[in-house]
Write a structure and sequence with these properties.
This protein is of the alpha/beta class and 353 residues long. It is 43% helix and 15% strand. The protein has one domain (2-351): Luciferase-like domain (TIM Barrel, Alpha-Beta Barrel), CATH 3.20.20. The protein has helices at residues 24-41, 61-70, 89-102, 118-122, 130-146, 185-194, 211-223, 248-270, 274-282, 301-315, 332-345, 347-351, and strands at residues 2-7, 45-48, 76-79, 82-83, 109-112, 150-152, 160-163, 177-181, 197-200, 233-241, 296-299, 320-324. The strands form two sheets. Strands 1, 2, 3, 4, 5, 8, 9, 10, 11 and 12 form a ten-stranded parallel β-sheet that branches. Strands 6-7 form a two-stranded antiparallel ribbon. It is globular.
């Protein structure tokens, strides 16, 4: 199992003080620092999410990834996720080709439809068209990366007639594409048939509930005859490590609860996508007696290593675990302390396995 550094870009007041531990500029610098530390620590990738019009303030992750690219040499740089239905695929093709050149071929991209229909409304789009926009934009984007001259016509975007985007990607080919889903078996199957990678957005459910999606994806990928080396299933862990004997959950719980209240406010004020609505109704069933979800991986280094190994087994094999350390207003020093503890005392157990 490989590990990626993840942030979805929430910027919330510290629940213990009611004050922001960092201003917005300082929080952006934290995300750059997390990417730099991730490379030094041996993470294989860094992933940043895109959101709009709420306290997820990271609306253009490819710009932050470019800043990380300038200070790193080997770590892969991706989005988890870019909101493909909401973006012009021509601009995305240009943006990510630029990131790929700046990083000498290290760019990946994750695509999804987002968590709230409010984004569609404020951008003047119909949320009901999300699946059609996703498919149409993905088709054009891949052609722009792969073909020298593109003549394309769709239902929702103006035709792209005999055009070519510049710059080209570092290797002159389409970038690795990760398709995100929480519930859709059809999305998992499409990702496999197309030779894409699968990103399981573990929010409300247990890891074992994602195993059928992973199996559908792998079967479709293999049946389509793609190179097995490109097959990849990613999952998300909300993660906190404390190297001492203190109860890590009692320290981290206020920040997890702060984050979940924030997501709840978004749901009430802006609505949730249909898939997340379905999952959220089941969420309370999966809380343990201490109010933890399976994706809340927290404890001493030994406890965290065991929880990650269990998640790997429950999904039937996680190729890449995306670790989210900075959620809920956790101050930068505590975030970096947790990352360092993970680096020094958890990662070696997986390298040596």
């Amino acid at each position: 199992m490989r590990f990626g550094m993840l942030s979805l870009g929430d910027h919330l007041p510290d629940p213990l003080t009611g004050e922001y531990a960092e201003n917005q500029a300082e929080r952006f610098q934290l995300w750059v620092e997390l990417g730099v530390r991730a490379e030094r620590a041996g993470f294989d990738s860094c992933w940043l999410g895109e959101h709009h019009f709420n306290e997820y303030i990271l609306s253009c992750p490819q710009m932050v990834l470019a800043a990380i690219a300038a200070r790193t040499e080997s770590i892969r740089l991706g989005t988890a996720v870019s909101l493909l239905p909401n973006q012009d695929p021509v601009r995305l093709a240009e943006d990510f080709a630029t990131l790929d050149l700046l990083s000498h071929g290290r760019a990946e991209v994750g695509f999804g439809s987002g968590i709230t229909p409010n984004t569609f409304r404020l951008l003047g789009q119909d949320p009901a068209l999300a699946p059609d926009l996703m498919a149409e934009h993905l088709d054009l984007l891949q052609r722009l990366w792969s073909e020298e001259c593109v003549d394309w016509r769709g239902k929702h975007r103006a035709p792209f007639k005999e055009g070519r985007t510049e710059p080209r990607t570092f290797r002159g080919a389409a970038l690795p594409i990760n398709i995100a889903t929480s519930t859709s078996s059809e999305a998992a199957a499409r990702a496999g048939r197309a030779g894409h990678r699968l990103m399981l957005m573990t929010v409300y459910k247990r890891y074992r509930d994602f195993r059928p999606l992973a199996e559908i994806y792998r079967e479709a990928y293999t049946a389509a005859g793609h190179d097995p080396a490109g097959m990849c299933v990613s999952a998300v862990a909300y993660l906190h490590v404390r190297p001492d004997a203190q109860d890590a959950w009692s320290v981290w719980r206020p920040y997890v609860q702060n984050y979940m209240r924030f997501v709840g406010r978004i749901a009430r004020q802006q609505g949730l996508s249909a898939s997340l609505q379905a999952a959220s109704h089941e969420g309370p069933k999966w809380l343990d007696e201490r109010g933890r979800r399976e994706a809340d991986i927290c404890g001493t280094p030994a406890e965290v290593a065991e929880q990650l190994a269990r998640a790997d087994r429950e999904v039937g094999g996680v190729d890449r675990m995306l670790c989210y350390f900075d959620l809920g207003g956790l101050p930068a020093p505590a975030t970096l302390e947790s990352v360092d503890a993970f680096t020094e005392e958890v990662l070696p157990a997986f390298r040596d396995a």
